[in-house]
Amino acid sequence: MILIGYRADDSYFSFAESFVQNGLPLRSLNEALHLGKLGTQTVLISEKAFRNLTFDGAGFADKTVYYPKFIARDSNARETYRKEIRNRRSYKNDIFVLDILREEMKDNDSRIQRILSI
Prior knowledge:
By secondary structure, the chain is mainly alpha-helical. The protein has helices spanning 11-20, 26-32, 47-51, 63-85, 97-102, 110-116, and strands at residues 2-6, 40-44.
C-alpha cells in the first residue's frame, strides 16, 4: 500500500495544530493546506509496495538553489495564513474538531465531504 499526503515538516503542521486545538474550522484548514504548494510525501506501508520499488538513479540537489525556494514557499504560505485565514470570521455551519468528536462524525460524513470538496 502506498499513501500520499501532506508533509508534516513545514507550515502544514502548524495549520493542523490550530485545527486540533479547536482554533481553526475545517473549512479554513482545508484552504490553508493548499497554500504555497509546499508539497506532499509518499509513504510505502506494505511489503508489496517495497517489493515493487526499483532504484532508477539519483541526482544532486543543490541546497543553495532549493532551500531558498522551500523557505520562500513556506514563508509565503505562513504569511497568507496569517493575513487571510487565521483570523477569518467563523460561520454558524463551520465544523471544528470538537464538533467532529462530539458528533462522532466519520470521514464519509456529508458535512465533512462538502467542505473538503471545495
